[in-house]
Amino acid sequence: MEDVTFSLQQGTITSLFGENGSGKTTLFHIVSGFMKANSGEVLFKGVDLNGNNSVEIARLGVGRVWQTPRICKNLSVSGQSCSGFQNHPGETVFNYLIKPRLIWKEEKSRKVRASAISEDIGLAGKLQKTGSLSFGQQKLLSLGMLLMNDCECFSWTSHLPELTAL
């Protein structure tokens, strides 16, 4: 890739089309921190993302949905949605020992949110294991996981036939 420049407007959906090998996936790798650009900047809300790892970039609100969904196939839709949450108070032993009520309240809040997002993306009532969801539903679940983390900008790579199946 050379001389790539573009900007995104908040609240819009922007598409990137190109032939195989044209650099679409490489661009997504760079924006989401899985690759580093050789030169230039990758700005999100004034912060240069280039050089940050994928976890740091995700904490800033940038995420991605992979071509092949990366989900735990033995979890329920709700369980999978909640598993991607960042900054859970239960991540520290201290909170388990001193603040168990805080963890309980957070879990309850996240389950309510997971239920609302599942409804928004058309997976409400899907109580089965995520491994039994169709490929398109697994992609939607991946999107739901980004929404659970208040992701403000995300990339979704798909082949056109996959999109028409949704």
SSE layout and pairings?
Layout: H1 24-31, E1 43-44, E2 47-48, H2 54-59, E3 62-65, H3 77-83, H4 93-98, H5 100-120, H6 135-148, E4 153-156, H7 160-165
Parallel strand pairs: 3-4
Antiparallel strand pairs: 1-2
Question: How does this structure look, described?
Answer:
This protein has 166 residues and is mostly helical. The protein has one domain: Rossmann fold, CATH 3.40.50.300. The chain is 41% helix and 7% strand. The chain has seven helices and four strands, in the order αββαβααααβα. The strands form two sheets. Strands 1-2 form a two-stranded antiparallel sheet. A two-stranded parallel sheet has the order 3-4. Strand 1 and strand 2 (47-48) form a beta hairpin. The radius of gyration is 18 Å and the shape is globular. The mean pLDDT is 81.
Return the domain count.
1
Order of helices and strands: HEEHEHHHHEH
List low-pLDDT spans.
none
The number of helical runs is 7
Q: Rg to the nearest angstrom?
A: 18 Å
Tally of extended strands? Answer: 4
Q: Tell me which CATH architecture applies here.
A: 3-Layer(aba) Sandwich
Q: What is the assembly state of the chains in this entry?
A: single chain
Most strands sheet: 2 strands, antiparallel
For the largest sheet, list the strands in their spatial order: 1-2
Q: What average pLDDT do the residues reach? A: 81
- Structural class of the helices, strands and pairings? mainly alpha
